[in-house]
Amino acid sequence: MRKTMRVLSLLALLALLIPACGAPATEAPAGAVVTEAPAAAEPIKLTIWWWGEQEAPGAQAWLDETMALYTAAHPNITFEAVLQATDTLLPAFQTAAAAKEGPDIQYFWPGVWTIENAWIDAIIPLDDLIPAEEWA
Q1: pTM of the prediction?
Q2: What SS3 string covers the chain?
Q3: Distance of alpha carbon 48 from alpha carbon 98, whole angstroms
Q4: 31-65: pLDDT as tens digits
Q5: Is the dihedral of CA 89, 92, 98, 101 positive or negative?
Q6: Could you report the per-residue pLDDT of 102-122, keeping only the tens digit for each?
Q7: What phi, psi does 43 have (nearest 5°)?
């Protein structure tokens, strides 16, 4: 069960990261010869506010490993992971959302906090950010 939760958490994190990190694909016309190398991807720094180490010791090591693996596969992507305190996570996020500022990625444990923030449009759905072929 614990391994399944780790895999699901990794998939959820990657689902959040993929749309922010991808560049639009371009294709050459059929029969065209591409002679120049693709341009290097622009550097992207993503800020993640998260919590969990307090309730799930080892979450920090998992997040560090996951970010390192993602950066190894996508060298232009770097992360700033900011561990939030349990008692300040919600008010800090609500203040940031009201100001239209804050992290690129916010991790909440699933539950009422996620739903409440969806109701006030403080989070965005991923449906339009992940291409159909990625879902497949």
Answers
A1: 0.60
A2: CHHHHHHHHHHHHHHHHHHHHCCCCCCCCCCCCCCCCCCCCCCEEEEEEECCCCCCCCHHHHHHHHHHHHHHHCCCEEEEEEECCCCCHHHHHHHHHHCCCCCCEECCCCCHHHHHHHHCCCCCCCCCCCCHHHHC
A3: 18
A4: 444 444 445 689 999 999 998 888 889 999 999 99
A5: negative
A6: 899 887 776 777 777 777 777
A7: -65, 140
